[in-house]
Amino acid sequence: MQTCIYLDNNATTQVDPQVVEAMLPYLTQYYGNPSSMHRFGGQVGKAVKTARAQVAALFNSEESEVVFNSCGTEGNNTAIRAALAAQPERKHIITTQVEHPAVLNVYKQLEKQGYTVTYLSVSRKGQVDMMELEASMTGNTALVSMMYANNETGVIFPVEQAGAIAKEYGATMHVDAVQVAGKIPLNMQDSTIDLLTISGHKLHAPKGIGALYIRKGFRFRPFLLGGHQERGRRAGTENVPGLTALGKAAELALEHLPNVKQEKKLRDRLEKTLLKTIPEIEVNGGGTERLPNTTNIGFKYIEGEAILLSLDQYGICASSGSACTSGSLEPSHVLRAMGLPYTILHGSIRFSLSRFNTDADVDRVLELMPQIVDRLRALSPFNSDQAEWLQGREEAVATSK
Ligand SMILES: Cc1ncc(COP(=O)(O)O)c(C=O)c1O
Ligand code: FES
């Protein structure tokens, strides 16, 4: 199998070998159904309990507040629907312009069903403004839904403060924490958040397993109806190998949290050296609080996709935004919302690290990037003289839409 220097960990992560080891017995000998009456199934039930405790430890929550599901997308869909069902008389939702499609596309549908949605703007640095949130709140607001950190820029949002504002108005606070679990500590014990989503494949567990935190006492309405698994909050026979993997991944993430500064050191070295060695580049979301593993850099006058293809030829995996929208040629909705100039919008790429990256990985990128950028810029018909013209063209396209 082809391997690469993998710097696309916000898209998905390598499954930790210890996670594979933990889940394997539940794919082979322990295949019982945890709901069965017999002892064979009972053993498997114990694994579910252990995994729940491990995820609760990552959340710093009670075990009963953890519900396993299939992914971050399911968690977000479920949380949003549950928040609206809890207060059906309220018809207003507040979110941000830079959420993941697993949130934004739910709101698009809800708008068609009679809900009003306020999309909070972000600054040039990609940060939300709590004054704008406060000014948007009304007695009709059912839900404030905000990501903990943005998948493209890594910018961290003040979700606790947002939750406190939501509470003042009696609204539910939902947080998409898919990108932060394992990267910054979570503390649900002492939190204003009611519902919080994580996804296994972003923290070294496999794809297809996730968890939703549901604050004790929250009037929760399930999304999937059927059997009484997960205490009636998520029907469907449990994905035991998956949740065992997520439990182990959560345990390892918690252990690793004090060492996240190592990833940050690597990220900072990558970022600072690129800024020093390549002219006309900028860090998108720089100068505000960000995830320790993420850097999103705009290289003026060239296409992000061209940089990615060049890197790919050298066996380096990076990305130009979210994996699910990268098939389209539209520039990222996140960078667009930040009001970045045309040439940055089209020339941005993201490197996202994990605990498996090494100094040698960063060295290789630092060795290759100046020559890649030089070569692409030499071929590019654009330069700083046309930057103003390009910006004008972008604005003309935007207003004609
Ligand atoms: C911020 C954010 N939310 C939600 C998701 C969706 O998670 P999943 O792939 O588990 O459905 C992702 C994954 O890209 C994400 O980055
Ligand atoms: S589903 Fe992961 S980037 Fe979209």
Automatic annotation (TrEMBL):
<protein>
    <recommendedName>
        <fullName>Cysteine desulfurase</fullName>
        <ecNumber>2.8.1.7</ecNumber>
    </recommendedName>
</protein>
<dbReference type="InterPro" id="IPR015421">
    <property type="entry name" value="PyrdxlP-dep_Trfase_major"/>
</dbReference>
<keyword id="KW-0408">Iron</keyword>
<dbReference type="Pfam" id="PF00266">
    <property type="entry name" value="Aminotran_5"/>
</dbReference>
<dbReference type="InterPro" id="IPR000192">
    <property type="entry name" value="Aminotrans_V_dom"/>
</dbReference>
<dbReference type="GO" id="GO:0006520">
    <property type="term" value="P:amino acid metabolic process"/>
</dbReference>
<keyword id="KW-0663">Pyridoxal phosphate</keyword>
<keyword id="KW-0411">Iron-sulfur</keyword>
<keyword id="KW-0808">Transferase</keyword>
<dbReference type="InterPro" id="IPR020578">
    <property type="entry name" value="Aminotrans_V_PyrdxlP_BS"/>
</dbReference>
<dbReference type="GO" id="GO:0031071">
    <property type="term" value="F:cysteine desulfurase activity"/>
</dbReference>
<dbReference type="InterPro" id="IPR016454">
    <property type="entry name" value="Cysteine_dSase"/>
</dbReference>
<dbReference type="InterPro" id="IPR017772">
    <property type="entry name" value="Cys_deSase_NifS_bac/arc"/>
</dbReference>
<comment type="similarity">
    <text>Belongs to the class-V pyridoxal-phosphate-dependent aminotransferase family. NifS/IscS subfamily.</text>
</comment>
<keyword id="KW-0479">Metal-binding</keyword>
<dbReference type="GO" id="GO:0046872">
    <property type="term" value="F:metal ion binding"/>
</dbReference>
<dbReference type="GO" id="GO:0030170">
    <property type="term" value="F:pyridoxal phosphate binding"/>
</dbReference>
<dbReference type="GO" id="GO:0051536">
    <property type="term" value="F:iron-sulfur cluster binding"/>
</dbReference>
<dbReference type="InterPro" id="IPR015422">
    <property type="entry name" value="PyrdxlP-dep_Trfase_small"/>
</dbReference>
<dbReference type="InterPro" id="IPR015424">
    <property type="entry name" value="PyrdxlP-dep_Trfase"/>
</dbReference>
<comment type="subunit">
    <text>Homodimer.</text>
</comment>
<comment type="function">
    <text>Catalyzes the removal of elemental sulfur atoms from cysteine to produce alanine.</text>
</comment>
<feature type="domain" description="Aminotransferase class V">
    <location>
        <begin position="5"/>
        <end position="365"/>
    </location>
</feature>
